[in-house]
Amino acid sequence: IIRNEIGWFDDTTNTSAVLASRLEMEATLLRTIVVDRSTILLQNVSLIVTSFAIAFILNWRITLVVIATYPLMVSGHISERIFMSGFGGNLSKAYLAANMVAGEAVGNIRTVAAFCAEAKVLDLYTQRLAEPARRSFRRGQIAGVFYGVSQFFIFTSYALALWYGSRLMRDGLASFKTVMKTFMVLIVTALAMGEMLALVPDLLKGNQMVASVFDILDRRPSIRSSAESGGGRSEEVVEGEALERVQGLIEMKGVWFSYPSRPDAVLFQGLNLRLQAGRSMAIVGPSGSGKSSIIALILRFYDPSSGRVMVDGNPHSSLFPSH
After folding, report:
1. Domain ranges of the chain
2. Which of 16, 17, 161, 196 has the maximal Cβ count within 10 Å?
3. What average pLDDT does range 128-152 have in this prediction?
4. Quick check: keyword Membrane in the entry (predicted)?
């Protein structure tokens, strides 16, 4: 992130609050999904294969009957897992707006107190909480209904398997010990299968997180701070000049400039400026006339749309800001 040029941070999708949220949420969630979920997935696949082999060896008749009930049993376990983790998605993003209001108010508490705006801040915070509160209430209602239905499916499947096992014991085709062993093995298998299928949305979400993270990692900044920071994940060396001695002569020739976040608002149109080394110059003008923008161009926070910025006769774009 810190290798990117200043103009990249001016984008509303790359503000400090958004980037901090992405670092906190996406990176942590990515590690959880890729590492933890993948481990659970491989573990459950091995368990399912082994359990089916054991169940068929113990009693193939009850195994086939229980497998026939797997759609109900597994769907019940999937629903149970989803509703336990929270129906309706993650509410952390919904609470982000309220958290931002609270953070800004606390960080600028002197200003809030100076204008006696405490009540207004509380009202704004309450408004930001209205949407997540409404979603939480709806989630609780729907989760309660479907959780009951999922439990009905699960215990109906259990009852059918045990009933058929009693028929096999009555006919002398299986013993109580064999029926219970087979039943418990298949129940564990159903739990593992339900858990594995419930992880599929998380894995798909992980792919989106990977794409989001690597969009930043693979991005090549338009202004590189040094020869070593070529951008992206590669360690390429970018060619450029490093002045051994800087006299301090700065020139702007025919500079046209607009901020990347406001490309239609052209600030400089053919600006020519010469700053002599060792001399002081006052740049005077109203707010928004471009005084700080001149400093930003000299520091190479941005590159001009056209024209050149020169340092001791060398094009600004051929030098690295770190030198």
Report:
1. 6-216, 250-318
2. 161
3. 80
4. yes
**Where does residue 170 rank: exposed (0-12), middle (13-18), buried (19+ CB within 10 A)?**
exposed
pLDDT at residue 82, as a whole number: 63
How far apart are the C-alpha atoms of 271 and 268, rounded to whole Å?
6
With 90 as the cut, is the pLDDT of residue 200 above it?
Answer: no
pLDDT of residue 240: 59
Q: Token pair for residue 235?
A: 């360690």
Q: Span 244-266, mean pLDDT? A: 84
Q: Which two tokens stand for residue 248?
A: 């301090």
pTM, 2 dp? 0.48
Give the CATH number of domain 250-318: 3.40.50.300
Domain 6-216 has CATH 1.20.1560.10: yes
Q: With a cut of 80, say whether residue 15 has pLDDT above it.
A: no
Does residue 267 carry a pLDDT above 80?
A: yes
